[in-house]
Amino acid sequence: MRSTRLLAFVCCAFAACGPNRTYPDRATYQPAATTALSCVPNLDGTIEASELQTAFDLPVTYLVNPVGTTRAVSIPGSTTTAGKQLWDLSTDYADDQAAKLTATHLTGKWYASSFPTAQFASPLDLGGTTDGVYTNDGTKLLLLGYASATENPPSGKTLVVYTAPVAIFEFPLTVGKQWVSVGEVRNATLRGLPFAGRDTYQVKVDAAGELDLPDLTFTQALRVRTTATIEPSVGNVITRRQVGWVFECFGEVARATAKDNETADDFTTAAELRRLGF
Predict the structure, then answer these.
(1) Is 164 inside any structural domain?
(2) What is the pTM of this model?
(3) pLDDT in tens, 191-205
């Protein structure tokens, strides 16, 4: 009798005194599919139009000096012991501010009907008060004009449409490429006032090398120099020099803009220094 009870206890201990259970085989975990990147840098020293496709509604953060301050810059950069061109823009400034820029479709924009061939808009200024309007036709990145982000801002409405687009980039971008593009402006509105004039852009891709930023390093960036000469029908001519660094798939990752009417190509003080960061 005792052995029978003992056997019943053992069965109860191992079977939890419950009905016989059959456990199903579990399916093997299936991870989510990995989406292939639409653009992967190949570091060939050339940037094609396909390597600068617009990413819509994706905020991009730039570190920038506060308005009214300046930054020391070395446009020539230096040469590493291995003989490679290097631009060191990695200084982490305590007073840098973060600005977010986003490329968007023109749907719903108050100025959309004035740019029927436009593909996207993106802020020209880090404050987002003025939008540049662009199209990429596969051979050039074209600036069609610009407009105030809102139709009637406190500073006055702006709507400037070039009679012929200005080529910001001509593809492929590679060292030695240069061009001049002129945008005529007629019957425009600038800050609420009638405006006409001519903007001349002289652009040159003149070097390639490593670019060091506070949060990122780009091993094969192209240096692009742009000199814009702004000639209004009324008022003084303004010359604006900027140097941008462009990387495959990312676009412009850094930019140094000189004070207006700076005469030196290799200026040492930037009125604005923007760098891709966090």
Answers:
(1) yes
(2) 0.86
(3) 999 999 999 999 999
